[in-house]
DNA sequence: GCAACGGCTTCTGTATACAGGATCCAAGTG
DNA sequence: CACTTGGATCCTGTATACAGAAGCCGTTGC
């Protein structure tokens, strides 16, 4: 309750009272964040009343948020039995990697073709932040952020819209296995950035695909070494 | 109103009273269908009260349906100003083609790798239906259906889940330009099917990509010849 | 004649209310 | 001892209610 109310406050101050972000959106973000950070673990039931009371709102915004999160794939709903945080199965991680290679490769290529100045600047900023980051949570967020920005830099709105949820799910799956790969990630990101900035479509795509493929290999050996928790 | 109630009836009979499909899902399907068939044209405002009365339900299921359709990208919502059927911009069509080439290429490859018997049988059925279809609406639906089934045959759940909405949007954009490409489509589908059935990953992917690329070229020349309606 | 202002209408955002299915526990029965 | 059965409880699905923002329209002042 306090939390949402607080953020609402911040929002309205920040936007000079113009925008009036609907509660439902704040609720959606909040629940998503709780899932992504592991505060709501996989399998946890999302009881509408409890969430509503916890966030200090009525059930309606919570319900709408749950529908949205369900179409994003973060929660699973069973009719008349309610929603629960989705349980990522091992196969899901592999599936995600396949898709990410295809889409992020495309995104990098399009970004290189486009070479949009503002987008490149944002990428540069993320990379600098990534270099300075040291907290585990921040590292993961910035990693996701970089990939998101590449998708944005592609100029393909749909692609950006698709990659967003995909990356969130990937980050979440990683979270479940307490796995990161910070060092290599940064240098590979730098290479991808360089290729995009140089307008080298071919390299950009190849590097992006290789980057995801490397993450996949690393991830697979990680889960193999440390099986089901 | 009658419509939804009727479908509810059918549903509950069909499933022997076990499933009890929530109204919200029926409402979602109904509105989506109305958008996809053009009954609700782009830009049309989705006034909750009117939809609710029209479908014989209250506003809540309608609201939840709108949120879902919004995350699918079929409707656009402006805070405090309500939802409207999305307006596809020309650039969107191109964006969709890029993404479809990447994802459907991947899907065809994975399907060829997998060669699942049941999935192949479903594909075969769709192709046979497609050969017999003659009504414009049916042709478009079956075309979409084939692509969806390929995604399903990939065995990659996420991919299937991603490609579904994508195809719906593509079909819808096509609808706006009153464009189809039935003949070529069928023969190309047959080739893709053959490659998948033969387990030829490389060909399957190449053919799928070429198929979408051909559709793109054809579409672009079509809209060039017959500009903005 | 035109622009600013104020009230009205419409619609969204949010809360509350109520009905009925799902689940669980306990007691009874074979 | 396992298995069913009845009821109580929890929770979802759906409807209704109400407050306040956005847009519209007529009016008023210049």
Question: What would you note in describing this structure?
Answer:
- The structure is a homodimer of 229-residue chains.
- Chain A has helices spanning 2-14, 23-36, 48-55, 59-72, 90-114, 117-132, 136-153, 157-176, 182-198, 201-225; strands at residues 45-46, 75-78, 82-85.
- Chain A is mainly alpha-helical and 229 residues long.
- Chain A has two domains: 2-85, Orthogonal Bundle (Arc Repressor Mutant, subunit A); 90-225, GntR ligand-binding domain-like (Four Helix Bundle (Hemerythrin (Met), subunit A)), CATH 1.20.120.
- Chain A has a three-stranded antiparallel beta sheet with strand order 1-3-2.
- In chain A, helix 2 (23-36) crosses helix 4 (59-72) and helix 6 packs antiparallel against helix 7 (136-153).
- The relative contact order of chain A is 0.12.
- The interface between A and B is large, with 36 and 36 residues.
- The structure holds a DNA duplex (30 and 30 nucleotides).
Give a quick precis of the structure:
The structure is a homodimer of 229-residue chains. With 229 residues, chain A is mainly α.
Structural class of chain A: mainly alpha
- How would you describe the shape of chain A? globular
Compute the gyration radius of chain A: what is it? 19 Å
Number of helical segments with 4 or more residues of chain A: 10
